[in-house]
Each structure stands twice: as structure tokens, then as C-alpha cells.
Specification:
Number of helices: 13
CATH topology of the largest domain: Malonyl-Coenzyme A Acyl Carrier Protein, domain 2
CATH superfamily of the largest domain: Malonyl-Coenzyme A Acyl Carrier Protein, domain 2
Strand order of the largest sheet: 8-7-2-1-9-10
CATH class of the largest domain: Alpha Beta
Number of domains: 2
Order of helices and strands: EHHHHEHHEHEEHEHEEHHEHEH
């Protein structure tokens, strides 16, 4: 009997539900230890985030909290249910989650990376803009729509293909600065595209305006000039980097991806396609929330592919 190949997927910004973070405490005794490790590294108490006692729109809090919950979900699937991933895929800040799951970095160091990334994103771009999801015809030339808005609006977050039986539509994420939001929305809607605001996102999530994040993360990594920095090792499980849509396991490649992914667009569709071509037929959303499984539901992955949201894997 052929083994079913599995991929675990971790989302990035825009968490829609924090309920999973509390229910995980009842699913495994490991969860409390995981949450404590994140707290020790960052001062973020995950249960307080889930209960709304800490801000759910502060990325320096949200990103390490989401990492801890995704890591705990992976532990439940792996240790409690015997479901082991063949590939790992993380979107945006979710890359830190899967890098920790792969044992390329420790959970505490991953949480520190996530917190610093979130802190710097807010410092450099907080309040400058946000992002939208755009449902549009595949023939739409976004480069033409965005002409004149370069550097202020650009496809950046994800790009997925709508199922063929749904008129060949696509979904693209677009980051923007507030100053061009009205014009951007008008241009898109005039083409018949549907524009959906991404909630709880107070900055444009990817782009050149976040180069300072790259510099900050690079300084945290161990090197010949920083012997006390965070050590990055080879990954136990292949990670499909959504920046390149390529599988990686070597420490040097993971190191480069961690630093560069903040300013580069996310190639989600191509990354998932790669997993399917490598035989993956089950995709588990690690959460928090079901945003990843909802996105995958838009893709044409084949009748034999299963997408398992958090609400089912609990």
C-alpha cells in the first residue's frame, strides 16, 4: 500500500480566529510547554492573545503567538495522531513556523525572529497601508492596472488560480499605501474585479519599504562576525519556500530565505503545485484559523487531493 504524502501549511498575517489556541491546551500536554517556550523567548502569553487580553493587531505580539499555535498543532498531528509531514509550506510569517517544525531553528529562536519581524514591520510601515485580495479574470493585466502606482501598490502576498470550472478566475494579493487605496480600488472594480480587504493588517506586508526588516533579521543570525547569533541548521523535513516555490533543506538556503522573504512576493500557487507534483495528496492547515485551507480551496489541485482545515483536524 502506497504511503499518503502529507504537507503541513502555516499561514501568515490576517489571522481570522484564535479559538484554536485555547482548544490545543486540551488536545495535548505538550501545548502548555510550547506556549511557555514562546513566552520565555518573547514575553508573549499566547492564551492572553487568544482571549483578547493582548492586542490582536500588534504584529510583534500576533506573529510569535501564531507561530506557537501552528507549532503546537503540528505536534498534536505528529505526536498524538502519527501524522508526519513530507513537506512544509509557510506563507509570509508562517515561514518561521515551518522552519521551527523542521528543526532548522529552535522554537524559541523562531519566536524571536517572528517577534522582531513583526516589530520592524510596524516600525517601518505601521499605518502606511495594508493589503487586499482581488478576485479577477485571468486575462486581467495587473501591470496595466497598477501603472503609475509603482512602489505604492504591487502584487505581493499570494497568487492563486481559481478552479477551471469557475470561469478561470484568479485571486491575487496586492499591498498598497493608504494614499492610493481609493484609486486602486476604483481601477480594479471598473474591470469587474471583486476587492476584499484583509482584516487586522495595519501595514503593507511585503515590499521594498521593508528592507530594514531584512537588515535586522540578518544581524540576528550567527555568522563569523556574530558568534552568539541564532544558529540555523539543515532541516529534517523539506520546506517549500514560497518566495521561490522550491524545496529547501540546507541551512545556507534557509538562512537566505528567512532574510529575503519579507520583501518578496509569495508564490503560493506554484509552491502548492510543486508539492502536488511531488505526490502530496493531503494538506493540513496548522492555523490559527482556516485561512490557508480556504485559500487552497480556490485552487485546482485534483480530485485526489484533500485539504484538511483546523476545524476538522481538531
Amino acid at each position: 500500500m502506497r504511503k499518503v504524502k502529507v504537507a503541513f501549511m502555516a499561514p501568515g498575517q490576517g489571522v481570522t480566529s484564535w479559538e484554536e489556541g485555547l482548544s490545543l491546551l486540551d488536545e495535548s500536554p505538550r501545548t502548555e510547554r510550547i506556549y511557555k517556550e514562546v513566552y520565555d523567548a518573547t514575553g508573549v502569553k499566547i492564551t492572553d492573545v487568544c482571549e483578547g487580553k493582548l492586542p490582536q493587531d500588534d504584529t510583534s505580539i500576533v506573529q510569535p503567538a501564531a507561530l506557537g499555535i501552528g507549532y503546537a498543532r503540528a505536534e498534536v498531528l505528529n505526536q498524538e495522531r502519527g501524522i508526519k509531514p513530507d513537506y512544509l509550506i509557510g506563507v509570509s510569517s508562517g515561514e518561521f513556523t515551518v522552519t521551527a517544525i523542521s528543526r532548522a531553528i529552535s522554537l524559541k529562536d523562531a519566536a524571536r525572529f517572528a517577534q522582531e519581524r513583526g516589530r520592524m514591520q510596524q516600525e517601518l510601515a505601521g499605518g502606511l497601508g495594508s493589503a487586499v485580495s482581488v478576485l479577477h479574470r485571468k486575462e486581467l493585466r495587473l501591470d496595466e492596472i497598477l501603472k503609475g502606482l509603482e512602489g505604492r501598490a504591487y502584487p505581493s502576498n499570494f497568487h492563486v488560480r481559481k478552479k477551471p470550472n469557475e470561469t478561470g478566475m484568479r485571486i491575487t494579493g496586492i499591498s498598497y499605501l493608504h494614499e492610493v487605496y481609493d484609486e486602486l480600488r476604483q481601477r480594479l472594480e471598473e474591470t469587474g474585479a471583486k476587492v476584499i480587504d484583509i482584516k487586522n493588517l495595519e501595514f503593507p506586508p511585503h515590499g521594498d519599504h521593508l528592507k530594514g526588516v531584512q537588515e535586522s533579521l540578518a544581524k540576528m543570525i550567527r555568522s563569523r562576525t556574530n558568534l552568539t547569533g541564532i544558529k540555523i541548521s539543515d532541516a529534517d523535513t523539506p520546506i517549500i519556500a514560497t518566495m521561490t516555490a522550491r524545496a529547501m533543506q540546507k541551512a545556507r538556503t534557509i538562512r537566505r530565505n528567512i532574510v529575503w522573504q519579507t520583501t518578496n512576493p509569495t508564490q503560493l500557487s506554484d509552491s502548492v503545485d510543486l508539492a502536488v507534483t511531488k505526490g502530496v495528496t493531503e494538506f493540513y492547515d496548522l492555523g490559527p484559523g482556516d485561512s490557508m485551507s480556504k485559500l487552497l480551496g480556490f485552487m485546482s489541485l485534483g480530485d485526489n487531493v484533500k485539504i484538511i482545515p483546523v476545524s476538522i483536524s481538531q
